[in-house]
């Protein structure tokens, strides 16, 4: 399959790179990362120029393009800086749940603000001691007249302290116990505004990487939201969340791909300039072979990521394709950025040379939305199928 970019896609890639070169200031990024803050002005500029919602329809102020073009922006931004790039591309995290499933009125109310960079969103899916087993959630949303009343606690909510809205996975009806497993019937997605009565943000964590996107706990205590904030059909929340995870894993693969490329290019530039024993480091065979391995890993990750995005846009995607892209791209990001640190030697350990935070950000890409073991289970399920 040929993934040569067409004219429009090349323009997207070029525009994203020009924006990143002009707006991504290294010193500002380092300082804001320490403070765990994202520059709101750059989020707004990114939205105004169409980068955040490039894969959203024009009806909600989006670019009317596909996930493939979104992947190109993710890759390009993270090549310039993995921390700010990921934060920008995740400023609308979980809003795809609204886009793909919500009623028109809910889409029109919130999506244009997210696309324009005026509102940030996040997803509240996981719960303490639950891991990624969403069948065990205990957060409830009980019907009360024209409202839902939400009670429960969510954990590891990306940017939970700064998001304007939450997409929450709740139990809205009793579950059947099938013996071996709890049924996924009765789960629903509901939207709640940040700052609503009964919502508290707790335990803002200091991350190893991606420090502009801290993870938090969110507690919901008798939070009242209108019935119209139900996303999609009641009882379909589990399936909608899994579909979102599939799409999001392709996005994470793109972020990891850009991270790997960014670390590689910094290492390549260094070894082409640095001399030792009268020769450029790039002239030593061991260095050449390391660069060859790094480039090969990136190209393999790029193919799988582009293929998964193409399949998604052509309605041919399967969960295992997204899992393959994510696990391969994240592994490439971790291994390439690690090797970049080695090639830079002591400088690779220094913040000002950037590859150290590319390495830290790469590790989060490997873990977020399911660590490698979960991706392998998804892939294995597809390969093996049902056993008789």
Q: What percentage of residues falls in helices of 4 or more residues?
A: 40-55%
Q: Supply the CATH superfamily name of the largest domain.
A: Butyryl-CoA Dehydrogenase, subunit A, domain 3
Topology order in helix (H) and strand (E) letters: HHHHHHHEEEEEEEEHEEHHHH
CATH topology of the largest domain: Butyryl-CoA Dehydrogenase, subunit A, domain 3
The largest sheet has its strands arranged as 1-4-5-8
Output the radius of gyration: 21 Å
Outline the secondary-structure elements:
Elements: H1 7-23, H2 26-35, H3 40-48, H4 67-80, H5 82-89, H6 95-101, H7 104-115, E1 121-124, E2 140-144, E3 147-158, E4 165-171, E5 187-193, E6 199-202, E7 215-226, E8 230-231, H8 237-273, E9 275-276, E10 279-280, H9 285-313, H10 319-344, H11 355-367, H12 372-384
Short description, anyone?
The protein is an alpha+beta fold.
Task: Explain what you see.
There is one protein chain. The chain is of the alpha+beta class and 388 residues long. It has 3 domains: 109 residues, Acyl-CoA dehydrogenase/oxidase, N-terminal domain (Butyryl-Coa Dehydrogenase, subunit A, domain 1), CATH 1.10.540; 115 residues, Butyryl-CoA Dehydrogenase, subunit A, domain 2, CATH 2.40.110.10; 146 residues, Butyryl-CoA Dehydrogenase, subunit A, domain 3 (Up-down Bundle), CATH 1.20.140.10. The protein has 12 helices and 10 strands. The strands form 3 sheets. A 4-stranded mixed sheet has the order 1-4-5-8. α1 packs parallel to α4 and α8 runs antiparallel to α11. It starts with 6 loop residues before the first helix and ends with a helix. The model has no long low-confidence stretch (mean pLDDT 93).
């Amino acid at each position: 399959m040929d993934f040569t970019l067409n004219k429009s896609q090349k323009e997207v890639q070029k525009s994203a790179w020009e924006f990143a070169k002009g707006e991504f200031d290294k010193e500002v990024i380092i300082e804001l990362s320490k403070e765990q803050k994202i520059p709101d002005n750059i989020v707004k500029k990114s939205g105004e120029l169409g980068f955040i919602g490039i894969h959203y329809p024009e009806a909600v102020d989006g670019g009317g393009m596909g996930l493939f073009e979104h992947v190109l922006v993710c890759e390009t931004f993270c090549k310039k800086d993995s921390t700010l790039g990921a934060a920008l591309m995740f400023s609308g995290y979980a809003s795809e749940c609204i886009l793909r499933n919500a009623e028109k009125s809910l889409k029109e109310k919130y999506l244009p603000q997210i696309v324009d960079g005026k509102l940030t969103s996040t997803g509240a899916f996981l719960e303490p001691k639950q891991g990624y087993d969403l069948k065990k959630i205990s957060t409830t949303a009980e019907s009360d007249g024209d409202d839902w009343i939400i009670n429960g606690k969510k954990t590891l909510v990306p940017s939970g302290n700064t998001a304007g809205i939450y997409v929450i996975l709740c139990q809205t009806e009793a579950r059947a116990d099938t013996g071996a497993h709890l049924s996924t019937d009765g789960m629903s997605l509901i939207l709640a505004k940040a700052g609503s009565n009964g919502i508290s943000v707790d335990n803002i964590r200091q991350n190893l990487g991606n420090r502009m996107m801290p993870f938090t706990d969110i507690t919901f205590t008798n939070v009242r939201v209108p019935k119209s904030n139900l996303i999609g059909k009641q009882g379909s929340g589990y399936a909608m969340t899994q579909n979102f995870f599939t799409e999001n894993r392709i996005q994470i693969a793109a972020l990891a791909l850009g991270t790997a490329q960014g670390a590689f290019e910094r290492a390549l530039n260094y070894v082409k300039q640095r001399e030792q024993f009268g020769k450029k480091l790039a002239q030593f065979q061991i260095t050449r072979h390391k660069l060859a391995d790094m480039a090969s890993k990136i190209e393999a990750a790029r193919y799988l990521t582009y293929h998964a995005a193409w399949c998604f846009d052509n309605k041919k995607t399967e969960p295992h394709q997204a899992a393959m892209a994510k696990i391969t791209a994240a592994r490439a990001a971790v291994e390439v950025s690690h090797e970049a640190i080695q090639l830079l030697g002591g400088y690779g350990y220094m913040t000002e040379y950037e590859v150290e935070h590319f390495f830290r950000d790469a590790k989060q890409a490997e873990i977020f939305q399911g660590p490698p073991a979960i991706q392998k289970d998804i892939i294995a399920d597809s390969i093996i199928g049902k056993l008789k």
